[in-house]
Design goal:
single chain; alpha+beta; Cyclophilin; eight-stranded antiparallel sheet; about 20% strand; globular
């Protein structure tokens, strides 16, 4: 669940109100997902024991432009390998950025398209890789950083979010990449009109994710 400070003036208060709804929605959707299906130790799209190419970069092609990432493998090797494996086995192809909060982040990677789903490359959720005292986390959640979305401690799966702007988050979300090119596309995606529950009124599609050296 995302928790924000009340700093940031009017914008901060507006975002805090929206993110309060976001937090409540996240709890409800996570409960629904838990009730709907038992956890599996297999992701049907990723063969058991599969290894990735080991590439250091990713290219996210959306229907509104391309976003390029560089992995922070030294800080989050398991989260990086998870993303690589999911991408290389086409898990993300055709999914959406299902939750958009301008001034904060864009979130995607859920095959259900509503925040209730998603599996890691290994099926089961995997633990956090967070070092709050490291330079990375002391620097905070800055514009262009990419983090794993979760529903609590050690519940990482397939969902991730890209920071649209700097924001004061607690160190509860695994940072595993940063945008090297395409922040203008992030801005475009963040400007898509949304409903009150922060869902785009028209789908924002992830066409494919390609892993590069």
């Amino acid at each position: 669940m995302l928790q924000l400070s009340s700093s940031g003036g009017i914008l901060g208060r507006v975002l805090l109100q929206r993110l309060s709804r976001f937090a409540v929605t996240t709890i409800v959707l996570a409960a629904a997902a838990t009730a709907a299906c038992a956890p599996s130790d297999v992701n049907p799209k990723v063969p058991r024991g599969a290894k990735s190419s080991g590439g250091g970069h990713a290219v996210i092609e959306t229907d509104r432009g391309t976003i390029e990432l560089k992995f922070l493998e030294g800080d989050a090797p398991r989260a990086v390998e998870n993303f690589r494996l999911l991408a290389e086995h086409h898990y993300y192809d055709g999914l959406t950025f299902h939750r958009i909060i301008p001034g904060f982040m864009i979130q995607g990677g859920d095959p259900n398209g509503d925040g209730t789903g998603g599996q890691s490359a290994w099926g089961q959720e995997f633990p956090d890789e967070i070092k709050p005292d490291s330079a990375l986390y002391k620097g905070g959640y800055k514009r262009g950083l990419v983090a794993m979305a979760n529903r609590g401690r050690d519940t990482n799966g397939s969902q991730f979010f890209i920071m649209h702007q700097d924001y004061d988050l607690p160190p509860n979300y695994v940072l595993f990449a940063w945008v090297t090119k395409g922040l203008d596309v992030v801005d475009v995606l963040a400007s898509v009109p949304t409903s009150r529950d922060d869902r785009p009124l028209t789908p924002v599609v992830i066409k494919t994710v390609t892993i590069k050296p």
